[in-house]
User: Fold Lipoprotein from Chryseobacterium camelliae.
Amino acid sequence: MKNAPIILKVLYYIIPVLILSCFLSCKREHVQSHRSGTNLPEVREMKNSKAWIFLTYLDSLVKLPAAEFNEAAMMSVHKKYAIELPLVIYDPAKEQNRQDIIIQYYKNNNTSNEVETGIILLIPETITDSLVVGDFTRYFGPITDEQPLIGITEQPRPVRIRVSPDRTIKLTFENNRNRDQAGVTRVEILNYR
Assistant:
């Protein structure tokens, strides 16, 4: 009986510690399992990938003001991203590497055409495999639906994403049953008059 007060004091301190440790351990496991179930790792992977860098490069080109949408401004943006992406300006005299993103600026002198200038980007297979139409719609917005002028063709028709009143992105993609999962092979930025 002399040990009864000591046993009560020990139980008085040990039981709350056990209960508290039980709650803390449950909370930690819940937080860890909750974190592992999120999409954060996928977002980090996308932000570090060439596809994400290409989308930000494209965004920089699209956001050029209409007065500065020319070859000199394109070259300025090109220099900023040339370290991270395999960018090459099209040169008909040289043979291009299949791993490079080939870029060509053009100016339309025909005043009856509504497109004044444009930039064509040919995407290599190494990036096409990880860059799908759905990435563009998530980044730039929805696709503008157009009525086809011809019947169904084997190759899907290019789609357009209107990013501003005078600027559109035109995407050419691989033939795939689900358009959002189709790899993009060519991007064209169109600047309207």
In short: The helical segments are 4-36, 40-48, 50-62, 71-81, 125-128, 133-140. Confidence is low (pLDDT under 50) at residues 31-45. The chain has two domains: 4-38, 50-192.
